[in-house]
Amino acid sequence: MILKRIFAMEFNYQVRRKSTWIYFSTVFAFAYLWVMGNYIYDAREGYFLLNSPLVIASVAVLCCVMWLLIGASVAGDASARDLATRMYPLTWTLPTAKTAYLGGRFLAAFALNVIILLAIPAGLFAAMELSGAEKEILGPLRTDAYLACFFYIILPNIFFATAIQFTVATLTRRAAGGYLGGMILFTAGFIIAQAMPDSGKWGELIDPMCFTTVMSYTSSWSPLEKNSRLILDGETFLVNRLLWFVISISALAFTCYRFRFRTNENIQKEKTTRHPHPGSRLLERLNPGLWVTMPEIRGNFGFVSQLRQLLTITSKAFLQIAKNKAGIPLLVIMALIIWAVLPANLEARNVPLTHRTDVILNYLTAPVIQPESFWIIIVMLTIYYAGELIWQEREAGLNEIANTAPVREWQLFVGRFLAVSLVLMIWMTLLMIAGILTQITSRDTNIELLLYFKILFGMQLPDCLLFALLALFLQVLINHKYLAYLVSLLAYVSIATAASLGIEHKLLIFSASPRWTYTDMAGFGSSVKPWLWFKIYWISWSLLLGVLVQLFWMRGNEKKIITRIRLARGRITRSKALFTLSVVCCLVLTGSFIFYNTNVVNEYRTAFDLSEQRADYEKLYRKYIDAASPMLKEVKLQVEIYPKQNEVTITGEYVLLNKTSESIDSIHIATADGVETHLKNFDQPSAELLRDTIHGHHIYRLADMLRPGDSVRLFFDVNYKSRGFSNNGADAHILDNGSSFSNIKWLPAIGYQPYRELDDAGSRKKFGLEARAASPSLYDIEARKYAPFPEQIRFEATIGTDADQQVVAPGTLRRVWIKNGRRYFHYMTDAPIRNEYSFFSANYALAEGKCENRSEPAKGVSILIYYPPGLTENPTRMIRSVQASLDYYTSHFGPYPHQQLRFIAHPGNSFGNHAAPINITTEEGFFLMKPAADPRGFDLVSAVVAHEVAHQWWGNMIKAASVEGAGLITESLAWYSAMCVFEEKYGADALRQLLDFMREENENPRTRAALPLLQANDWYQNYRKGPLALYTLRQYIGRDNMDKALRNFLAKYPAGTIPFPTSLDLYREFKEVTADSLQPLLYDLFEANTFWELKTDDAAAKRISDSLWQVTIQLHTKKLVIDSIGNEKISPMKDWVEIGIFSGSVGNTKGKQIYLQKHLVKSGSQTIQVTVPEEPFAVDVDPRHLFIDWKLQDNYRKVELKE
Amino acid sequence: MVHHPIGLVIRNVSKKYANGVQALQNISLNIPPGMYGLLGPNGAGKSTLMRTLATLQEPDEGQIFLGDIDVVKQKDPVRRTLGYLPQEFGVYPRSTAEELLDYFAILKGITNRAERKEVTAALLLQTNLWDKRKQRLGGFSGGMRQRFGVAVALLGNPGLLIVDEPTAGLDPGERLRFLNLLSEVGETSVVILSTHIVADVAEICSNMAIISKGEILLEGKPADAVNMLQGRIWQKLTDKDSLPVLEQEYPVVSSRLLGGKGKVNVYSLSRPGSGFEVVQPDLEDVYFSTLKGFYDMDIYHQKTKQIVP
Q: Predicted ipTM?
């Protein structure tokens, strides 16, 4: 009964509050906007139906995670209001059991939160069914999806969150404790579960909102499941719900146990205020003889005194938040966690990286306004600190005394701002310590203290401070703690998502700026200047906010807006006005300067503009795709690079050859964006028919037709000058050190360029383009005529740069000379290359090696590694891998026509490589990898190098048509080739490590629904499944047959032949060399998306003679074909599967292989008997994992010995 | 700097709250240096007036001057000479008395370290908190906390000291000491004491005002006001049951129960009836007569005219 009354009291109180309904509307808006702003686009792309159960669940968990932070005051308030309002002497003295008191309050908070989160289904329903979303992307309305989501996800989430928030609030005796509780859960769900690398099931368990689990379904469910499957099962799901239920109940029980109807103050009072002799004290007090004369001391209000007061206010405020458990202690714990996980995060595909300072800093920093890594917690804490600082005096009841003290508003405000700043500086210091400690323990690099200071305090801190100021401003202006929390959070979300809401100009997004970049090789490059201008601009805004904060600072009890405005007007002083005026001047000046740079000097283009331009290009010029066009044959360039001036001038000459069988009268030329192209003339009379510089399309008519076999020369200039900066920062092509640019980006191309077209279905629809698949179908014969930049060209260039830099371009470096204080390089190719090349200019260290060239033994191939000075870990290793690779590929695939093979470092933190003919671009981060320290013993660097060298054949000599399955020819064959190199040159162990590495990806949850390899375009199929399938094929048909097929493939499609080859052509070669008995396997591997499920049910052995054991193996097998939607079809199995038997070795490990034979295995259960000459220990079906089977553990079984 | 006592002038101050309550209605007062008592029932507008004087609230209309400082517009100069003890206040429970007093001393501009030490020590002694100066404020009793508030209010020798119902939580000894302290301050400053305890005013205030429902009903010197009632307060002892009847029949100023008997004070220019005895009036009679409307400024002024012809 009492519980019911307490419940009703609390419920009625809060349900009538505005805040409850503000929360409801906020959650409603979130749910609605998440559907309309995000999922509707994905649905239009065809990923799933808009109202599928998975979308409903995804939006629900997203809203739950957000609500953790905004809705915490419901539980917090229910728990701590009596204390905060000092009502406790009345309520706590009632004859109420604490279980009833707490229970009633908790249940009321729970009920209120249920009401608030009913906004999720309401918002979902409004967005999905009432907003007029097009019929094609909607399935039938499913009540069961809503019910399952509400009862299975939302309701438990509410219970867990309310319980934890209520617990923290009750135990800390403060409503803000609810907010802290929410943050703890948010961290558990959103940060830890997401950030833990390879967390897998643990991540799903630790996440109280099931965010991780539901999000993982978006990648691991097949399209069929995404559209229809209810989120009901899943083992971790249920365990998660149970685990958190137990945690919540325990927390509540503990709360009830610890709670006392007493305040901390009461408890202390009992100890301290008992006077031993009250009588004598009283006498003493009444004795007028003890009167003290008051010293005649008055306040001093000079400027120095004001500064002293500021210092006092700052330190008081600082101590208040620093001593808070969510203050320094929390920050220290966070720094410790970061320190602990730092080494694991300084890895590339699990290969440890050199702990160079810039690498660590790259991990430790992120723009505060982007929700990245742990910085989102710092943002939340900043919001929390701001609320505490503004409200601490009022909550303590000290405000009336403090506010009548003769201090100015600026002191009160600046003191608090400095206090947050100090806390944030301590955070930066902690991060710095974490980084330095990591460097000290790894001992492989020098610690650049100055760089730590520059980046953490110079670049990262200003971002944090700008946001802190915004949070303080909102607290002061809104003058309602929790409402201000909510608005601060919304402000943060809208800042972070401004770009996707269509606001892209950084002059309009608070505190936004182009990102600064730093790498050891290029330094800050040109990224600091634009960053700084934007920061000055936003600091000016913040100063204005600061003035507003002073004007609207709550000094008294006047909450009415009109009175506050009147008071603010009264606070305007001459000095404030002057200050404001000068800040506004600064604001206008920097703002105009930025605008001049982003919109006048550089063209300002939104993502929409860029897409529109591409769409228009297609609409205007696609009609010319089949126009007869000459082909680029020769390129001669005169290039001047001015790294310091960010400038490049190119004078060029193309030779175009008519390879068609008809005469050509007009030539289409595509010019590039971002440079000034001046098409000068042809070597024969011509007329300009069209000049469209906006879309980069030009048409010339030749006076005389270009007859088949004839050629024409085109002369042109291309100028590049980075002028100022754009909204995205300064252009980073030309840097003081580490410049590079490619022909694809800057130089004219011949004919219509299909690669410029928009590919994604949603954008195509938006701009009224005909719907088509992102990649043309494998069976689209027309599409086989196109591949990007496929021409085979002769290339020659003279390139000038600063005297202290080295230029790299394709071909042989014929001559280097100095002229007018500049260094010139003359490069020329010995054999045609594909029309893709880059120029590099930087200070490099060079490692050189030599390799015999089997096709031209006289010349050999020079191997040149241009690496960032100081990073000597990998170049030798790379040279060795190039030598091994070239040797293998030339003897098995065919000759390498060039005399050099180069790897050239490009500044940047990533690890990727890009293989153009002869020259392979390698990101700076690649040189930081330490394969020697890899606990797997795996040499990823050598493997990647072998892969990139293989691209000289697969991708450069043979260019696949831009249709489905192209990745099989480029990426799968390149990885397959690397496996061959490892097998032959690095040994069986190295090969096993590489294969294991390739299979690591199988452990990540992912849907089995996919296109077969012949049509696959996604990363996993191209880079992992494809190579493994090729390897399997090699094991079955033999290396010689593989080599034969590949050689034939290369021979039939010499570089530059049109139509370009597709995966079908490669497949045909495989078919050619595969025996009839293995044709089904070939089909299963490439033509269907096949999975095998191999399992050893039982293995027993019997000794039949002194040296013979008979092993009986029970197998259970299944073969399925899964289509790209997710339909599964059982396929009868009749495959030759290897059975391996191993003798026992030390402990329980698989020992020596004593038997390995292929057996014909059918679907279902079957028994196989073999005899072995040693005592068997274990049986493994398909021990080399040649079949695609994602569940490998059950293949293996220990043998039971029977007497 | 020699401190000249200056007075406080309140002119036509009105204040209406957002919920429609007229807290102050056209209040005008002249408050000379010395102790000034502001007497009134709960909800009379005392605290509103006090907070307005203490720069925490804005009057809708009217002006307030402390000497030549405009209190409404020049808040900072007022705060430099203001001491304010609110009716209710809290403390940081984890700070000690000495720390927090030191903090407020700096806020009040006493930034010189040696001076601050001297002032805080004197105030801690004065308020008898010296022995407790190292204790956390969270463990203070109501009276100790109140004394701490006084110490804060007295920092920097305020020229204007505003104390809002300060004696409510004090025991008799503490109250006495506190009132003495105020008197001492009142020698050189304007001290405004708001209270609903008549005895506080009677004991130490040289001037006073009675306020009810946002209006000033009476302003003057307590002694004069009491004098004016000479011969007008009649008392009758009666039994408890007849009290309601008496209250119907006579202009009753106050009535109280004493051990089953009723004692009634009645305002009348002549003997109101049998059983009534004329009694020596006190300030409490002034207070109740005023609240009940028997007594007002006109009567008070007649009295003063009679005395000074």
A: 0.91
Residue A855: pLDDT band (50, 70, 90) is low
What is the domain partition of chain B in residue ranges?
8-220, 226-307
CA–CA separation, B234 vs B269, rounded Å? 9
pLDDT in tens, A958-1014: 999 999 999 999 999 999 999 999 999 999 999 999 999 999 888 887 888 899 999
pLDDT, residue A281, reads 44
Segment A1099-1116 mean pLDDT: 91
Alpha helices in A1056-1161 (DSSP H): 1063-1073, 1079-1082
Model pLDDT for residues A245-265, shown as the tens digit of each residue: 999 999 999 998 888 877 655
Structure tokens at A1140: 């391996």
Q: Which two tokens stand for residue A509?
A: 């997004």
CA triple A286-A291-A294, angle to 5 deg: 145
Tokens of residue A665, six digits: 């009268």
Q: Which fold has domain B8-220?
A: Rossmann fold (3.40.50)
Q: What 3 state SS string does A348-415 have? A: ECCEEECCCHHHHHHHHCCCCCCCCCCHHHHHHHHHHHHHHHHHHHHHHCCHHHHHCCCCCHHHHHHH
| Each residue's pLDDT tens digit, A225-251 | 888 888 776 667 888 889 999 999 999
| Contact at CB, B138 and A316, closer than 8 angstroms | no
CATH code matching the domain that covers A970-1087, chosen among 1.10.390.10, 3.30.70.1560, 3.90.1150.10, 1.10.287.70: 1.10.390.10
pLDDT at A129: 87
Q: How many angstroms away from the CA of A310 is the closest CA of chain B? A: 9
> A481 has which bridge partners?
none
Contact across the interface for B126 and A300, Cβ inside 8 Å: no
On chain B, the residues whose CB falls within 8 A of the CB of A397 are 88-91
Q: Within chain A, which residue ranges are assigned CATH 1.10.390.10?
A: 970-1087
Please judge whether A272 and B126 are an interchain contact, meaning their C-beta atoms are less than 8 angstroms apart. no
DSSP string, A47-61: SS-TT-HHHHHHHHH
Q: What percent of chain A has pLDDT over 70?
A: 95
CA distance B155 to chain A (A): 8
- Which residue of B lies nearest to A294 if distances are taken between CA atoms? B122
Q: At what angle do helices A461-478 and A481-496 cross, to 10 degrees?
A: 140
Give the nearest chain B residue to A568 (CA atoms). B73
Residue count of chain B, please give it. Answer: 309
* Percent helix / strand / coil, chain B, rounded to 5: 40, 30, 35
**Contact flag B144-A273 (C-beta cutoff 8 Å):** yes
| Cα separation, A674 vs A747, whole angstroms | 10
C-beta atoms of B92 and A566 within 8 A: no
- Asked if the Cβ–Cβ distance from B154 to A294 is below 8 Å, we say yes
Q: Give the whole-angstrom CA distance, residue A750 versus residue A1166.
A: 62
Bond preceding residue A1059 cis, omega within 30 of 0: yes
pLDDT band for position A196 (cuts 50, 70, 90): low
Test B173 with A282 for CB contact under 8 angstroms: yes
Whole-model pTM: value is 0.89
Q: How far is B43 from chain A (nearest CA, A)?
A: 17
Closest Cα to residue A1109, out of A1099, A1120, A1123?
A1099
CB pairs A-B closer than 8 Å: 152
When comparing pLDDT for A1197 and A278, which is higher?
A: A1197
CATH level 2 (architecture), domain A1090-1202: Sandwich (2.60)
The whole-angstrom separation of Cα A954 and Cα A947 is: 10
Are the beta carbons of B47 and B205 closer than 8 angstroms?
Answer: no
Over residues B27-43, the pLDDT tens digits come to: 999 999 889 999 988 88
pLDDT digits (tens, 9 = 90+) for A533-547: 999 999 999 999 999
Task: Give the mean pLDDT of chain A.
Answer: 89
